[in-house]
Each structure stands twice: as structure tokens, then as C-alpha cells.
Amino acid sequence: MGCCSGRCTLIFLCALQLVSLAALERQIFDFLGFQWAPILGNFLQIIVVILGLFGTIQFRPRYIVVYTVWTALWVTWNVFIICFYLEVGGLSKETDLMTFNISMHRSWWREHGPGCVRRVVRPSAPGILDDYSYVSVTGCIIDFQYLEVIHSAIQILLSLIGFVYACYVISIFMEEEDSFDFIGGLDTYSYRQPPQEHVELKPLKPVEVNIKNGCY
């Protein structure tokens, strides 16, 4: 089977999900911000996308089915991230939910976004440790929560397109397998020989030989 348009598009989408503003890029910045929940999700995303890419190239519909199911879960997760950073439904971006309450780290984009100026201000009040300091961030062109929302929105867009093409490629594979089995069945039937009739064998009567006269 050649590279049909749906299959080639799915291969391109899987590759795009891996590199361009997607899993690998997002994983790097989540590591820098110690965002453990997104790190785990990104890791699973990378594994499943590679699995879907392999299944598409090697004509393995089961792998593409796994990719399709995970894509639906991935869309749900990114919708939750958008709600988290936009503080929808009582969620707060200031909580430690993304770090599993292990640390108080926030998104890496909070202090390193485009145009952001980061200043470390040491408190002058007495009784505070010398190594304790405040971080002041000013001049950001885009706030960090909107950058996170943009990343999740890109993920949702790519995943929805990938979901549609994955379903389309699965249907193509299934149709070709059914047609192959049907043609193979006809060929097998056409070359099948008719069953042989049962022939009843009867024992032969012994023949007496007259050795003296040389006759039977």
C-alpha cells in the first residue's frame, strides 16, 4: 500500500507534535520550572506519539488505536491546564497543584517570558535571613499564564486534527484488510479440489496355482 494522503498527513502531524511547539519543547520548559504533573503528561505524550508514528509507518492499526484513545485524554488534560491558568471553576494558578505539592515552583515563563525583567530584591526588614530574597518581575509583554494557555491550545489543535486523521487511517487499514481476506478466500475456494468419493475396497479371492500342470 502506498502513502495515501491521510496516512502521510498523520505521519506529518505526529512528527509535528513531537518537535514544533509541542511535546519536546514543552517538556524542556516544564523541567526548568519543575512542573512535575506536566512533565509526566508530556513524557506519556512523547511515548504514545512515537507509537502512533511507528504504527502508521508499519501499518499497525492497533498502535494507531492506542494513539487515538490517548489523544482524547491529552485534549482533556490540556483543557484542564487552560482552566487552571485562567482560574476557571475555583482553580488558582498560585497553588502547587502542578508540582504535586512537592515544591513552590511556578511556571518557567513567569520570570523568563518575552520582555520580562527579573530583579532579586533582598528584604531590609530585621530578623529575616540574609539568603532570603524576593523576585520582582516587570515589563512582560505577555503574562506567563497566557503563554501556558497558548501552548495548551496548540496541543489541543494538533491533537484534534491527529484524532480525525487517525480514525480515517484506521478505517482505511480495516477496509484493505477486509478486501484482502475476501480476495484470498475466493482464490482459496477456486483452487480447492472437489472431495473424492469414497470407494469401498473388497478383499480379493485367493488364486490357486497348480504347479504340477503349470496352470492357474
From TrEMBL:
Kindly indicate whether the keyword Isomerase belongs to this entry. Answer: no
Q: How does it sit in the membrane?
A: Multi-pass membrane protein
Q: Where are the transmembrane segments?
A: 34-57, 64-88, 153-173
- Which residues, if any, are the signal sequence? 1-22
User: Is Nucleotide-binding tagged as a keyword?
Assistant: no
The record's subcellular locations are: Cell membrane
Record's GO cellular component terms: plasma membrane
Q: Which GO terms describe its biological process?
A: regulation of sodium ion transport
Arranged from A to Z, the UniProt key words for this protein are:
Cell membrane, Membrane, Signal, Transmembrane, Transmembrane helix
The Swiss-Prot or TrEMBL record describes its family as follows: Belongs to the NKAIN family.
Q: Which PANTHER family match?
A: SODIUM_POTASSIUM-TRANSPORTING ATPASE SUBUNIT BETA-1-INTERACTING PROTEIN 3, T-CELL LYMPHOMA BREAKPOINT-ASSOCIATED TARGET 1-RELATED
Q: What is this protein called?
A: Sodium/potassium-transporting ATPase subunit beta-1-interacting protein
Organism (species): Nothoprocta perdicaria (Chilean tinamou)
